[in-house]
Amino acid sequence: MSEMLESVPDLGGERATSVALPPESGIRAEVWALAWPVILSFALDSILGLAAMLMVGRLGAEAVGAVGLATQILGAVRAGIAAVGTGTIALVARYMGANDRDNAEEVLKQSVIFGVLVSTIIAIPVIVFATPLMGLFQVKGEMARMGARYLQVVMLSEPFQGIFLMCASGLRGAGDTRTPLWIGGFIDVLAIFLNYVLIFGKFGMPALGVDGSAFATLIAIAIGGLLFFWALSFDSMVLNFRWRALWPDLDLGWRILRVGNPAAIEQLVIQFGFVAYVAFVARYGAKEVAAYFIGVRILALSFLPGFGFSSASATLVGQGLGAENPHFARKAGWESTGMAVVLMTAMGLVFIVFARQIAALFIDDHQVILYTVAFMYALGAAQPLMAIDWTITGALRGAGDSRFPLWGSLAGFYGMRLFLTIIIWYNHFDIVWIWWSIIADYTVRSTVKTLRFYGGKWETVKV
User: Fold this and answer.
1) Which residues contact 393 (CB under 8 A, 6 or more apart)?
2) How many domains does the chain have?
């Protein structure tokens, strides 16, 4: 936590953590102190994604589409790991709010064990069936071949990704958002360098094209997982591992999964919904697919405040409930949401104003640029709604109320976006109408989740 936290007497023995909630008058500053490292961390991730897309974009529209489609599948695959990560944040935050560091560290240890197990179990069939999975998007030929091979290589990094994500989740739940920033930042810089070297064949290396981008991702994530493994061995950390007792605790592992399971189901179902969504986009053509993924990469920068304030609200809401102070938790959730709306709206406006100039940086195909600009307009306009959705979702998950966001997200995505997309495609309307279905989606999501948070039932959820 930041320097604003007040110290309290040691109530739990020598392993207890002298941490208390900040005064309510300082919640906004504490939200920002927790959010900015996460924002910067995801900014570096986005810069990595943009840099990789810029480099892959020099290989043509098919290469962009292949990497984008493979990444879509990768997102669906990682939904299983999301269950462990969401449960980790909620439980670590509760224990830290109650000044119980021993149990917080045990949650961290078990989340790493189960994160590696879950990610490995999921990765194996994806590697084996990569080609049929690419076929779900109705793409064939070179795009399908490149995408399947990219997916197979990147999936080899999943056990290390499990370590990386669980360590970052545990530390953020404990209020340490800076360590994931430093480690993640180093890995992002390394990945950009490796992409440049392996895609284009620099410094005596062969030019591997799309395969080079996949190997760069594999190497960087593996190093990142090992760095977290090493860093959390030191007692100077807010949380650390106890390697001499490293074995699965099935009861605690199930508890972590139970808290996070709705979030994993949400991500899994939404990601498979995205497979269907992108499949309809792919029916329009390769240029439309390329435009979609370029636009998503560009506007990922405007999503950053949402990630940061969602993490901050999850941490503070969880710690507030752990300290038996629901009023603090409620105020932290609303403060985080308001700050996210302001920043995401501002960034969305910037991307709308400069959409054409930014899109032209990624590809020199005139038609792809036009499609990308239209997509950026729609997603930029959705930023205030997305800010509300993401931050309130973080608050609810931090409270352990992870089931309700599932229903809200499904209602928005399947009930509005995918339903409208099918109607638009069936009637042969322009692709631009599919872009604008995003507004209907996030209107439903943000409304449903805001009403849930306002109602206050999340305050009584047991984790």
Assistant:
1) 310, 405, 408, 409, 449
2) 1
Is 12 within a domain? no
Q: Would you tell me how many other CB atoms lie within 10 Å of the CB of residue 426?
A: 9
Residue 318's domain spans which residues? 30-458
- d(CA 262, CA 67) in angstroms, rounded, equals 28
- Using 50, 70 and 90 to split pLDDT, how confident is the model at 16? very low
Question: What tens digit of pLDDT does each residue of 80-108 get?
Answer: 677 678 888 889 988 888 888 888 888 88
Residue 42: inside a domain = yes
Note whether 340 and 306 are within 8 A (CB).
yes
Give me the chain's average pLDDT, please.
85
**Strand intervals (E) in 321-409:** none
Place of tokens 């409270």: 399
Q: Find all residues with CB under 8 Å of 262, minimum gap 6, and list them.
A: 402, 403, 405, 406
Instruction: For residue 11, tell me if it sits in a domain.
Output: no
Burial of 121 (0-12, 13-18, 19+ CB in 10 A): exposed
Residue 319 domain-assigned? yes
Q: What are the tokens at 313?
A: 């609200």
Please state the pTM of the whole predicted model. 0.76
